[in-house]
Design brief:
about 80 residues
Amino acid sequence: MSSIGQIERITQNRIVKLFRDKMGYDYLGNWEERANNSNIKEVLLKKYLTKAGYSDELSKRAIYHLQTEARNNDRNLYNNN
């Protein structure tokens, strides 16, 4: 790994620690090499929305619109995020 990559990894580890330890998020691991890697985990998001009390239909629509926006090829990656 280059020194730039090492610096980036250190920064990512600090952010993971903040979200996990201070904010109470669950860390699901490093999925960089995972097959079908995506920034939207539909199954996990659906589970969260259901638990939050949203109907199945509303959850499906929200996930569809989120995926549509995230995959918009007319914008760059920064603007899609």
